[in-house]
Amino acid sequence: RTDRLRLRGGGKFEATEKEEDILQRTKKVGKSAKKAPEPPSAVEKEVMAALWKLRSDEGMRILKYCHIASAMEVLYGEDGARAVVILVPFIEMVEYRKIENELVPKLEEALGAHVVLVQYRRIQRKEKGGKRLLKQKRPMSRSMTAVHNAYLEDIVHPHNVVGRRREYLPNQPVPTHQVFLDPKVKEITESKLIMFREVYRGLTGRKSVFDYLVYPNGPEELRQ
User: What pTM does this model have?
Assistant: First the structure.
């Protein structure tokens, strides 16, 4: 399985030799590239310690070759519930998804919080008239809308988003994003809707409402 993990240049990933190597900051460009890398936060240290411990478990040995780009903590609900968002390097998400069903429950037990795996993506600014042109045209996958939609799909994974719309209310300059899930997964996801909302806000800054798409005049299985 490790033979399928490749760097962009074609080389293989090497096993991490110490716990600190699990955190792999993304390379910065421009003036920010000269700054020293930020030290790991308290949440990132927790995640690294948990992953380092799990890499010796049966079925988790692929973690020796996997990294994280960052991690953040989101508090939600009146009782101060906790969710940990782990941003995974783009090319390693495939390997994380293969062991997700076993990995996430173990991480949640170790961290005492809900765990959400999100693929790290970078937003690239749009070219404007009179500004210096970029070396290549911005890919659609780097636009803010595409990145935010991809974050949304990662947050609700393995479930799917079946509908979206923006609601503009009086005296509110920013729209509310309504996200609809399949009613068939209501029993599984109903307790997580607030967590989905706050994690999505933490990643994108968007105000959102999560609900289920129901057709009052549709087939019986789609009605409430």
Answer: 0.83
